Amino acid sequence: MVLLKLTDGVLYQPLANTCQRGARKVRNYGSLVGNSPPLTSPQKQPFSFPSFTKCNLAGRDCETIACDIFGSLLKSQSVFPYFMLVAFEGGSIFRALLLLLSYPVLLVFDYEYRLRVMIFFTFCGLRKKNMASVGRAVLPKFYQENLNLQAYEVFASVGFRVVLTSVPRVMVEHFLKDYMEVGDVLGTELHTVGHYFTGLLSGSGFLVKHNALKKYFGDKRPDIGIGSSSLEDHLFISLCKEAYVVNKEDNKSGTNSAMLRQKQPKPVIFHDGRLAFLPTPSATLAMFLWLPLGIILAILRISIGIILPCKIALFLASLTGVNLSVKGCINPTSSNPKKKGVLYVCTHRTLLDPVFLSMALGKPLTAVTYSLSKMSEIIAPIKTVRLTRDRKQDGETMGKLLSEGDLVVCPEGTTCREPYLLRFSSLFAELADEIVPVAINTNVSMFYGTTASGLKCLDPIFFLMNPGPAYYIEVLGRLPRELTCAGGKSSNEVANYIQRKLADALGFECTSLTRRDKYLMLAGNEGIVPDNKRKKP
């Protein structure tokens, strides 16, 4: 009976109502084709509002604005990509595939029933904590990248901001409050049972914007209202003292206007999730079509790196689409007879950084890392050693490895996808005077090869599943002795100098954030995985 009720509420009733409305449209169209006078005279739009570009931004600090996020603050009115992000990152690849397969059916429905079906497929059985993680760590990046720059300038010029939207509130609330400094978010509420969403709406149903606006403000009227060209938006912005619309022409003209980093509401330094693109229907279809070939290609690329020598592996990998760009002095040797090894200090983009550096230099290296999955250890073509986060013990381990040969260290302690460098640990500066900074950056088009809350063992596979994964490596040359601890500098001064030098080489920005900050934001923990198998000395 529950399944029958769900089918009736989610599929049958919307389809029946949509067909009924479609039949009325066809009847009216048929009367027009038959040269008969229309049943009713054409009605003019009940409202006519100016474009938001006409809004004066001066002196708005003490005023109030009300608007929607989709079609107003964002360039596109389409909500499908954001439901797909929740389905893929918060649910599973099978949930995402089901949502994609439902897309042709969604085209038959009007907006309200289309939204109802997407909510059901995306949220039915989804854990509330998974949705909270996606809303906190995945969606903000995509929302911010698709902001309408001109609309945001109007929005940001007003002191108190309220957003009304018919999409589920949980999908937009974190971004709007933490990044856009919105006072209140009014959206559609979802029904839950325990720790799970049921995929149905709460008893209040979809949010009706003009009713919600009246209820929230009461007798007062917001100073500015911004909406799309839809009738529903016209109804709620007509209740504001000043009403403006974002027309399709305005969105088209702003499509190519990229939001400058310095103008963004808040820099997105950390974000999670596997998808590196906005999953529109066509882009998602292309991803699923590529997936089988991508898996085969990733296995082939890994096999090439494990089995073959560096030069042959590089050549064959380039034939499969891997792009490795190397710049700088690639053969620095140690000038200190007491120590054989050179310490390479790298920026950290993926777990494959030491592997690609070893291939670029054409010689074996040893890499130290704080956390490495068993699978990554097995497929790594170079020696890897785990650190314990005990400064004294880790220092002894790295000193011993450095006396045996060249060593690679990533003092950030974790990866960062965006053009920022995290704070460098100063431990490496205390261990070696032969230090070579290496600037590393990556580029992907489909999948990110890092994760904070997912399976780390799949990181190399996801990176190598991209059609053309790219690595950029610049070896900056040995650090002068006077800039090392042997030259009188403190370890913190050395670490900060190398961080700034690497940031300048890559065009990145230095931060004081750490691994702990990243994992607290993205995963809600400190990023430390206890190793119960490790025996205490």
UniProtKB/TrEMBL annotation:
Main location: membrane
InterPro entries listed in its UniProt record: HAD_RAM2/GPAT1-8, Plipid/glycerol_acylTrfase
Organism: Pyrus ussuriensis x Pyrus communis
Residue intervals passing through the bilayer: 82-109, 284-306
PANTHER family: ANCIENT UBIQUITOUS PROTEIN (PTHR15486), GLYCEROL-3-PHOSPHATE ACYLTRANSFERASE 1 (PTHR15486:SF0)
Domain Phospholipid/glycerol acyltransferase: from-to ranges: 342-443
Compartmental location: Membrane
SUPFAM superfamilies tied to this protein: Glycerol-3-phosphate (1)-acyltransferase
CDD domains, alphabetized: LPLAT (cd06551)
GO biological process: cutin biosynthetic process
Residue ranges the record marks as coiled coil: none
Protein keywords: Acyltransferase, Membrane, Transferase, Transmembrane, Transmembrane helix
Domain of life: Eukaryota
Gene Ontology MF term list: glycerol-3-phosphate 2-O-acyltransferase activity; phosphatase activity
Recorded family membership: Belongs to the GPAT/DAPAT family.
Record has Transmembrane helix as a keyword: yes
UniProt name for this protein: Glycerol-3-phosphate acyltransferase 1-like
Membrane topology recorded in Swiss-Prot or TrEMBL: Multi-pass membrane protein
One Pfam match: HAD_RAM2_N
GO cellular component: membrane
